[in-house]
Amino acid sequence: MKPDESAGAVAPASEAPRLGVSGRIARAFQANAITPLLALVALLLGLFAVLVTPREEEPQINVTMANVLIPFPGASSTDVQNMVARPAEQVLSQIAGIEHTYSIARPGLAVLTVQFQVGVPRTEALVRLYDVLNANQDWLPRDLGILTPIVRPKGIDDVPVLAVTLWRRDAAPAVELERVAHAVEVELKRVPGTREVQTIGGPGRIVNVALEPTRMRERGLDVVQLRQVLAAANLGMPAGNVVDPSGKGMLSVQTGEFLRSADDVGALVVGVHANRPVYLREVARIEAGAAQPQQYVWFTPGAGATAGQADAATTPPQSQAERAAEAGRVYPAVTLSVTKKPGENAVDVARAVRARIDELRNSLLPPEVEVTVTRDYGQTAAEKANKLIQKLAFATGSVILLVGLALGRREAVIVGAAVMLTLTATLFASWAWGFTLNRVSLFALIFSIGILVDDAIVVVENIHRHQQLEPHARLADIIPRAVDEVGGPTILATLTVIAALLPMAFVTGLMGPYMSPIPINSSMGMALSLAIAFTVTPWLALKLMKQHAAPEGDVHDAAATVTVGRLQRVFVALLDPFLRSARRRWLLAAGVLGAMALSVGLVVVQWVVLKMLPFDNKSEFQLVVDMPAGTPLEDTTAALHDLGAFLAKQPEVRDLQGYAGTASPITFNGLVRQYYLRAEAELGDLQVNLVDKAHRHDQSHAIASRLRLELDRIAARHGAKLKVVEVPPGPPVLSPIVAEVYGPDEAGRSELAQRIARAFGSTAHIVGIDTTVKDDAPRAFLRVQRSRAESLGIPVATIAQTVHGALSGVDAAYLHDGHSKYPVPVRLQLPRESQVGLDALLSLPLKAANGTMVPLSELVRVERGVIDKPLYTKDLQPVQYVLGDMGGGVDSPLYGLFGIRAALAEAALPGTGTLGEYWIRQPGEAWKQYAIKWDGEWQITYETFRDMGAAYAVGLILIYLLVVAQFRSYLMPLIIMAPIPLTIVGVMPGHALLGAQFTATSMIGMIALAGIIVRNSILLVDFIELQLAEGVAFRDAVIRSAAVRAQPIALTGLAAMVGAFFILDDPIFNGLAVALIFGILVSTMLTLVVIPVLFYAVYRKRYEAA
Fold it and tell me: Buried-most residue among 368, 581, 643, 787 (CB within 10 A)?
């Protein structure tokens, strides 16, 4: 018989030792032909998962929101709130699964927002919403003038994954670009996976009927009559069928005529004057073209475009000098935004759309039209995924190299194979669970490398050790015994890590699903790594380590033996003084407690800053600009132009897009903040795109912070309120610092909000201060003189419709030209030049019952005043909001919030008593006390750390129960878990040393450390008990446990640290990496001392007496 066959033979059942579950599993699989096939299946399933799993940059959080718009034309804000918004909010609050309801009562319109709890499926949420609305229609009186509610659902899939901006260097008008964009829309919608393709910008094509009041009065015509004639002249319908006399069957008859051009509109006869027909072109100026601008969109190249950042795939090449010369110029533009269907791969959809755009070059896209990709979340998702997969490979390779240096090349191959199989199986399990390949799920795998390798390292290291102890034994006999020896503690240690991590999957709110891939993927990976360590690892060990068992000539084995001897001497010198002296043990305890206290003190003195999540290094940020209420669109545009001119000079800015009177393509942050509702003339924003990270030194947050001061100065010159909005690293909020103001009356709430805003302004480093209290905007109310109007036979409704049509325009008919994608309205309206002042409006004629023409000025009385301000409610309580952000100083809104509190005493309204302050819930008695409730990042931070703290506590309880079940002792688990608090001695100083903020990911690291450190304690305690069972003296057993288990403990700790090292450079997961690296480093060293000493101190009398 060959030597290798002898070594590989399985011992007869009669000679087999009594083994536990893990040993029996190892014996069953170590020479089983099915084992390599199972490994191959795991590998193939992982490759399948990599190919089919959708890739996205961020996890898709299932947040369903819906806006319910209820028009109430002509009603004041108070009437809208009392008659519409409040009853509607009461109805909507009945819906199960709702987290918050909001309402805004504006003049003539109620906007209600229903925010469902995270995780409620979109379809289910909308069914509930429509069901409640339809079942409660009786709360809207039929004859009150309230129109049918309009429901606009919003969710994560409404965020565009791709945005392209069309512009021309000859500054062609936006209406021409809009025509091109509409043609491209159809083609892009054909791309599989696309959901909505929308054009933002462009005035729209219309046939403008510019009214001339003087000519209308001369010919006896008014707006109502013109509208009726246009509507009646644009009609066609099937009339029926007649018998075809030619004998060919039935002949279909259709009658009527449609308006097909501006000439058709101008040729309409709208009346008779002096016995001759009056054509529409005689009383109005007919023009086909662009509508009066209600929004402006433009494109501005930045100085960073010269750094080779222009989109070479779609933009014709330019010289560097030409690009530098055009930086800062303003070009009219339109933006095409593309969303994807739920579950589609963002990478594939974005690539397919871009490929289709390239195909449309020189056909639907004329050569003079420039196409700049201003957002591509598919590309960023692919780059992030590829980079993280590369890091995953590097982390795996580094861990394998570490094992190779410590144990040998064959052992490294075995551990490496086990890790690869665990990763591939985990990728498949992640896909089956429903996760996408995103930054969080991939970071979970990188973070897990260090703990996934633990089981394989412990098993291989123990097989390796038994080979040295039993050099002449058959490997087939060694492997089951070696696996069985560490099987119990390995199972327990794996379960403790899972127990520490898995409760985090139950974190609520937006942060729960955002971070859920970490606990779920890590837990699945741990379970799979345990299975592979007991099945595939023994099979590989039998195949690869059989020639490695010779006692002589193995330099690595000899070195390992020397290492154990040296460690024995080191730990004798280190532990023996503490074992022999109770005083030294107390000094050790005092030193450890003192180190823990000093570590916590780093937070108190702000050497370690607490923050929800740090800012990521993105390639974009946004300026949100609010001009005073009533500001013309042109003034808003001018302010944005000045801001853009400054930004375009910055070397990091690639390009920017301006949006005045409309909203830019929303982000997830904009979805939650409802930026898509920003459509007033005084509102605008700039989308700023930076050059790629590789072409700039500063991170995006540092750039935005550096530019903020000058941007604030420019905005102040225009009287604008400016917010620099960065892409949040985690769940978005209304603003980083939010004070919700409650009280018994609207005037008091508004005044208190203004006073609190001043308190914000007096606090250092608080920026972006704003309130929902609108400035006064002038209003001219044309009050109808009823007696005069009724005596002339002119209804009030006719007067109101005439004024509305003259100023806002009334679409009396639509062209049927046969080629327009969108209807082209025929719009009656006063020309732009006549909308300056009220003179032209008041001269509009209306026809009395007797046929005489009466100017509007004789029917109305002009009353000057201010526009009704919007009224806000949240969860049925009236509220005002004060918003702010933290800029400079300590970069955490929490510290700014606590700084503001010092000035709140002066903000309270005189004579209203103490200002109430709430942190977690709304005030219960807002009807009798003025109060504020802190929201924003504080609320997310509180909920996240509350839930994570609860998960930490549950994890500790589960670990305790598991250890009790294993050791059948209530005291032993306390010893084993004693090192858990020691992690803080490494975590906090590590954050302070690297200048890192303690964030939610740092907390995840601390929770993971609980399981990792307990694993080390279990290995030590289990070995002590094994030694005692073999009759070793108590003190020797304690010291030998540290010496023998130091190598696998150090190896597993170093492996976890190596895995964490590869995520150290990520801005968001930096805290997790710091917590793991420093926490493992310090706590592992302390564990090797504290656990033996503590075990000796507790059980000394029992075992030494025995």
Answer: 643
CA dihedral defined by 1084, 1085, 1086, 1092, rounded to 10 degrees? 90
Q: What is the DSSP string of 1007-1027?
A: HHHHHHHHHHHHHHHHHHHHH
Closest CA to 454 of 508, 499, 399: 399
Q: Are residues 593 and 583 in the same domain?
A: yes
Give Cα 1096 distance to the centre of its chain: 51
Cβ atoms of 537 and 418 within 8 Å: the answer is yes
Q: Residue 861 is part of which domain span? A: 205-249+259-290+778-866
| 245, 246, 252, 253 alpha-carbon torsion, rounded to 10° | -50
How many domains, the chain?
A: 4
With respect to residue 881, please indicate whether it lies within any of the assigned structural domains. no
Instruction: Output the CA–CA distances (angstroms, integers) from residue 293 to 108, 662, 695, 749, 1075, in the order listed.
Output: 23, 11, 38, 36, 55
Tokens standing for residue 443: 């970071």
Which residues are within 8 A (CB) of 44 and not within 5 positions of it... i.e. 6 or more apart? none
d(CA 144, CA 140): 8
* 517-544 and 34-52 helices, crossing angle to 10°: 150
Angle subtended at Cα 619 by Cα 617 and Cα 620, rounded to the nearest 5 degrees = 110
The pTM is what? Answer: 0.85
Q: Which of 154, 187, 218 is the last residue of a domain?
A: 154
If asked whether residues 1086 and 968 sit together in one domain, one would say: yes
Question: Are 76 and 218 within one domain?
Answer: no
Residue 140 located in a structural domain: yes
Domain end marker among 841, 866, 891: 866
Phi/psi at 167 (5° precision)? -155, 165
Mean pLDDT by runs of 10 across the 1106 residues of the chain is 38 56 91 93 93 84 89 92 93 92 95 91 92 85 85 90 94 90 93 94 91 90 90 86 81 87 91 90 91 92 69 51 76 95 90 94 90 92 86 86 84 90 93 88 81 83 83 86 88 88 86 87 91 93 68 48 72 88 91 93 91 88 94 95 95 95 92 91 96 89 92 95 88 90 92 93 90 90 91 91 90 86 89 88 91 91 92 95 86 86 80 83 85 91 88 91 89 90 92 91 89 86 87 89 86 85 86 92 89 90 72
